[in-house]
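REQUEST FORM: STRUCTURE PREDICTION
Request ID: SP-0412
Submitted by: Lab K.M.
Chain count: 1
Length (residues): 177
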Amino acid sequence: MIIKNKAIIEDDWTVLRLNEQESAGNVVVAAGKMIVPLKVWLAQRDALQQRTEIGVWLASDERPEDLQGDIHKFSVIAVDFPKFSDGRGYSIAYNLRARLGYTGELRAIGDVLRDQLFYMQRVGFDAFAPRPDRKIGDALKALTDFSEVYQASFDQKLPLFRRAPRKGNSTAGLINE
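STATUS: Completed
RESULT:
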């Protein structure tokens, strides 16, 4: 189960994670909807680009620009959060959406916890695979924790002070001496 577009749905994609004996160039990518590591995509690009049901995931130390020429080929791109305190995935997501123009499903995978989801959606994530030891229903509620945001981001281009109407002139009533 994952959260996608603010609803809990069945996940029909499989995330491929390499074990110690496998390398990016020789791992066999099974048939079906597979999300492969970026290094597997780069090593097996010629073979994998023929598949229609292929996605890619980026580790927190990888650069989304490595997908720039291929970004339109993927209906899903995932970003891995190796641990709760690693925030590099937020920048990757923002860059995929705002700078590279990715419009498909952007999924957060790995150590994804309830407290992160609201902020993840702000930078462009629209799908989340919370940790399996957590209740997915509780995680879904996090997407509506706040009714207003102060800062600009991918989901809200203007900061609150630019959106809120103001009355009068802030210098009115000041005496010039």
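NOTES: The chain has one domain: 2-149.
Reviewed by: T.R.
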